[in-house]
Amino acid sequence: MRWFTFFCILLGISLFQSTLMNWINIGSAAPDLYFPLVIFYSFLADIKRNTITNWFVGMSKDLFSEGSFGINSVFFVAVGFFVWSIRGMLFRGHLVTQVLVTFIFSCIYNILYAVHATLSFHSLSLSATIWTIFTCSLYTAMIVPVLFWMFGKLQPTQQSFSQ
Amino acid sequence: MRTSTPSFSDIIKNPIATIIILLAISLSFLFLPLKLSSRIKMTCVVPVRPLQWATCFCSNSANNFLDKVFSGWRDAHVKKELEEQVFQFKNKILEQQDTIYKLQSKLYTLSKFQAENKSKTRPIPADIIGYDSLTFRKSITVNAGSKQGVKSNDIVVSNNALVGKVVSVSGGSSVVQLITDPASRIPGRVLQTREQVIIEGNATGFCQLKYVPRWAKLKKGDDIISSDIGGFYPPSLPVATVVEAEIKSGALFQSVKVLPKVNISKIEQVLIIIN
């Protein structure tokens, strides 16, 4: 695994997520480009690298967003650890698995964040929040094939999937 | 038998220890005072701000370019020959047009604001250079900071309508909490009925009104303006328009959905009002 490549990918995602999202938003549905990266490294890397990369991804998301500093790194490390621990039971090289795992864990992550936001501000409406979580998670899962292909091209250790 | 104390490098090699250390760092950040964590964030992101500005600038230029291309294609069926000439001409002066358009827009907004608000406040024009990366938070980053005199809690407007308030400031950029952010609470008033309300964000494109009495007669299209109660926001600043008012049985107050006057995805510049 190349750390320089990882940080370049992370910078690219951060810039895209914080400036160009208006180009790919569909209504209120906006994909989370950080999340496929978390799933990718949870599938690909060993536990230590997985933890460190997910921590950096979470910190990067925290830096480019308003709100509690550090909350996303905690969520991403937890999600990454959980995905890493169950990846032996999954056929992780298959596209359907990658899409499904991203969708399910994106839903869980968004629900956790919505609960955190609701506890902090008491101002999220339930129906709108559920709809936002569903559409955003679905959109995030839909772009997984493209992003995984790009990450796989940039990171030359993709053969680890078949191990 | 002697046992040696494990060194730092030994601890780092242990994956569980790595997880614990990283989580401890994250949790310690979480419990930092808000001002300190904002300062750390703003400082860490400073080197990336020029890249953000450049990306945003390219995006806006490309957007304008595509708009012009598509409008050219639409009219091509009607005046094909003439449109070809105009299109060539437009391509040549596209960059100049974009610059002139932006400067004119800034000047117009500035003049309009100064004409309508003869107070001690001073408006500063700023370009939007970034958006929030979280689904459930709504903020923007603008390219004006403490060097231009921006302070926390300064009010941000666009086309004389409220956009939000400044929450974090660094040398050359500031983060603006939008009125649609779930943490935003703005004292307001219904223009037509004079009812007092609180405008609250809920992380969608809409806001909701809190504490609207059941007997208040609100209808679609009613305007919501800011109120100077609390002395934080200037009075009479247009904020939103009523989209839907519903009286649920058993509820103490009405449930009112409002649409902000400013569509944040359609604007490129804002004005920061400095006291």
Structure description:
The complex is a heterodimer of chains A (163) and B (275). Chain A is mostly helical and 163 residues long. Chain A has eight helices and no strands. In chain A, α1 (3-19) packs parallel to α4, α3 (34-44) packs antiparallel against α4 and α3 crosses α6 (95-121). The longest helix of chain A is centred in the middle third of the chain and has 27 residues, at 95-121. Chain B is of the alpha+beta class and 275 residues long. Chain B contains five helices and twelve strands. In chain B, the strands form two sheets. In chain B, strands 1-2-5-4-3-12 form a six-stranded antiparallel β-barrel. Chain B has a six-stranded antiparallel beta barrel with strand order 6-7-8-11-10-9. The longest helix of chain B has 37 residues, at 80-116. Chains A and B meet through α1, α2, α4, α5 and α6 of A and α2, α3, α4 and β1 of B.
Annotation, overall tally of beta strands of chain A: 0
Determine the fraction of residues in helical runs of chain A and give it as a percent range.
over 70%
Oligomer: heterodimer
Q: Please provide the ordered H/E string of secondary-structure elements of chain A.
A: HHHHHHHH
| Helix/strand order of chain B | HHHHHEEEEEEEEEEEE
SSE arrangement:
The complex is a heterodimer of chains A (163) and B (275).
Chain A: H1 3-19, H2 21-24, H3 34-44, H4 47-63, H5 71-86, H6 95-121, H7 126-142, H8 144-154
Helix pairs in contact in A: 1-4, 3-4, 3-5, 3-6, 4-5, 5-6, 6-7
Chain B: H1 8-13, H2 15-30, H3 34-45, H4 49-76, H5 80-116, E1 122-131, E2 139-142, E3 155-158, E4 161-169, E5 174-178, E6 185-190, E7 196-201, E8 207-213, E9 223-226, E10 238-246, E11 253-260, E12 269-274
Helix pairs in contact in B: 4-5
